[in-house]
Write a structure and sequence with these properties.
About 20% of the residues lie in helices and about 25% in strands. The strands form five sheets. Strands 1, 2, 3, 4, 5, 6, 7 and 8 form an eight-stranded mixed sheet that branches. Strands 13, 14, 15, 16, 17 and 18 form a six-stranded mixed sheet that branches. The chain has nine helices and 20 strands. By secondary structure, it is α+β, with helices and mostly antiparallel strands. The two termini are about 30 Å apart.
């Protein structure tokens, strides 16, 4: 499969003191979104209402976290008219305060996310000083009280020859579409994983354009009827909840910091690579692991490398980062160098790796040229069976190794 191009970093041609000292910025796959998230407008229901119905608005549909597409490399965006049978005329007609006061836990509300404005379209929605085409994501997974409507929408789009892309990782999309998909998938997954309050266990309500969840103090579910129930009847007061007190009164999306590192030998001539047992033959990558509480990125890099390989590190430098929406990781890419005498590989600490070894830079260069792919896919033309295989260019591991063989650790200027 042809590997998609990586996104352009911010201001790629700008000459600055920072770029002369540290080199040009590196942008990784799943970053580089064309959307301005205008996060400060997410609580403005008048803005969301206008954005929802604008003729330039696009909706990306997900069914069980699988995005709607024409083919593996082309997302399909839908219009307000297409999704209206599921979401209703205007789910943003009322303020958040009203929605919270009228909360009914027996009614399933379609999960809708406001993603941002594409400001390249000057004929998009204009709101105050902001202009652009609005983008939303919508979960159309049939469930709860909207099962029938959601199923009808799923069948309607499938009847047009469209399909929901199955598979854990979508890495064939153009870079900007991949970034929109990543944002949407991560937030939909987070909402789906947090239907209940972590403090009191009661059902929660999605607010702020789908980027926060709150624990309402009352529930209309105890009243007879669909929404509102008996006139004059009082809703059930829910138990006290710590999330309604103080300033930390909302549940925010989760992002898990993860370090991933290209480790260079003390003489700068070799790089450390490892493999897991489930990977195809000859397939290796850089080492990675989660950052723990009260741990710096540099400390996490040193700890993870020692735990997995026994190798001891000195200097650690952050190279670039990559959002990874499976489910909510931020990959913090680093390049690190061994202390003199610290290159011995010992796998008896953490059994995560099946094998680890040092690779000469020329071997890595050749693998980056013809031996890269996603797991389970074929290498490029010219690859010789038995030679080293490495992750595709859409993985930050590839970018870290590319930087190392290009002289990142050497004395040459970065720009």
């Amino acid at each position: 499969m042809t590997q998609p191009a990586l996104p352009e970093p911010g201001f790629p041609n700008l000459d600055s003191m920072l770029s002369r000292k540290f080199g040009k910025e590196v942008a990784n796959y799943f970053s580089g979104s064309p959307l301005n998230r205008v996060s400060f407008l997410r609580a403005d229901h008048a803005f969301l209402s206008a954005a929802l119905k604008h003729p330039t608005t696009s909706f990306l549909l997900f069914n069980n976290l699988n995005p709607l597409a024409k083919d593996p490399g082309t997302l399909q965006f839908m219009s307000y008219a297409d999704v209206r049978p599921l979401i209703g005329d205007d789910p943003y007609a009322k303020s958040e305060e009203q929605l919270v006061s009228e909360y009914n836990s027996t009614i399933t509300i379609p999960q809708l996310l406001f993603l941002g404005l594409d400001e390249r379209n000057k004929r998009g929605l204009t709101y105050n000083i902001y202009t652009g085409s609005p983008f939303f994501a919508l979960d159309v997974t049939p469930k709860g009280s909207i099962t029938s409507q959601a199923q009808s929408l799923v069948e309607a789009v499938q009847s047009r020859g469209l399909k929901f892309l199955e598979g854990r990782i979508q890495a064939a999309l153009p870079a900007q579409d991949a970034a929109i998909y990543a944002q949407a998938r991560a937030l939909l997954d987070w909402n789906a994983r947090n239907p209940f309050c972590g403090q009191c266990g009661q059902p929660t309500l999605s607010i702020n354009g789908g980027t926060k969840r709150t624990c309402p103090p009352k529930d209309m579910a105890s009243l007879a009827g669909a929404i509102g129930g008996n006139v004059g009847a009082a809703p059930t007061e829910r138990p006290d909840c710590a999330t309604r007190k103080g300033i930390s009164n909302l549940c925010f999306p989760r992002t898990d910091p993860t370090v991933i590192m290209a480790v260079v030998s003390s003489d700068g001539k070799r790089v450390l690579i490892g493999r897991q047992k489930r990977w195809p033959p000859y397939w290796y990558s850089t080492l990675a692991g989660f950052v723990e509480p009260a741990e710096s990125v540099e400390e996490a890099v040193r700890r993870e490398v020692w735990e997995e390989s026994g190798v001891k590190l000195g200097r650690v430098v952050i190279h670039s980062t990559q959002p990874w929406p499976y489910p909510a990781n931020l990959m913090i890419g680093a390049i690190a160098q061994c202390v003199p005498g610290g290159e011995e590989i010992v796998l008896k600490h953490d059994p995560e790796l099946e094998a680890a070894r040092w690779a000469e830079l020329d071997e890595v260069r050749e693998a980056l040229r013809v031996g890269t792919s996603a797991l389970g896919e074929s290498a490029q033309e010219g690859y010789k069976e038995g030679n080293l295989r490495l992750p595709a260019g859409t993985a930050i591991a590839n970018q870290l190794l590319t930087a190392v063989v290009a002289g990142f650790v050497g004395e040459a200027p970065k720009m």
